[in-house]
Amino acid sequence: RAVIMVSIFLMTFVFERDQNPMNTLALAACVILIADPPSLYSISFQLSFTAVFAILFGFSHMPESLTVSYGSGSNNWRVHILKRLLSFFLVSVFAVWGSMPLVMFYFNQISCVGLLANFAVVPLVGFISIPLGLLGLFLIPLSVTGASWCIQAGTEILWFALEVVSWLADFQFAAVKVISPSLLEIGCYYA
Predict the structure, then answer these.
(1) N or C: which end of the chain has fewer CB within 10 A?
(2) How many CB atoms lie within 10 A of CB 98?
(3) CB 98 within 8 A of CB 55
């Protein structure tokens, strides 16, 4: 799903079209559903697209004063870093809030440590492990040893991230059991 979404977004550059994230998300969903219509009923499809929609919707309604922009001033780099950290944190908040009714419906629980886990794990996986894996993929034709080293390093980072998640999940308050919301309640939440 992520590859399809990114591919469609990148194709807008090839065809010199404006990038509308909501249209990109809708087109990615349509492509996936044309290729595999039953995926509409898969939990992963529903959670992925709901979370991404919530992130896009949340950021589209953010005040401009909180968006990352460059300006003049002596504290500009500090403000820029703070805005980046806020944006990073809000991605997780919007994803959790957007997917919460579905998580409650399918799993009968809400994570109390999800935001903390995301703040710790997403940088490890997204900025270190995945780039190392992709670098390893591109190094295979040039150096199998270099590719192997990158993939092994990425795997070690991934194992560490999984240990962090397991450690957080072991806390007694890591998740709260809840009732399954009805479809009407889910609809009201999203409305």
Answers:
(1) C
(2) 22
(3) yes
In angstroms, how far apart are the furthest CA atoms of the chain? 56
* Helix, strand or coil, per DSSP, at residue 27: helix
**End-to-end Cα, the chain, rounded Å:** 25
DSSP string of 53-87?
HHHHHHHHTS-GGGS-----STTHHHHHHHHHHHH
Q: Rounded to the nearest 5 degrees, what angle is found at the Cα of 46, between the Cα atoms of 53 and 99? A: 60
User: pTM of the prediction?
Assistant: 0.74
Q: Helix (H, G, I), strand (E, B), or coil: what is residue 8?
A: helix
Do residues 99 and 47 touch, judged by C-beta distance below 8 A? yes
- 75 close to 34: Cβ distance less than 8 angstroms: no
For the segment 15-62, what is each residue's pLDDT rounded down to a tens digit? 666 667 788 788 888 888 998 899 999 999 999 899 989 998 998 888
Q: How far apart are CA 51 and CA 95, in angstroms?
A: 4
* Residue 13 token pair: 């550059």
- The amino acid present at 169, given as its one-letter code, is A
Supply 118's token pair. Answer: 């995301």
Cβ contacts of 178 within 8 Å, gap of 6 or more? 104, 108, 109, 110
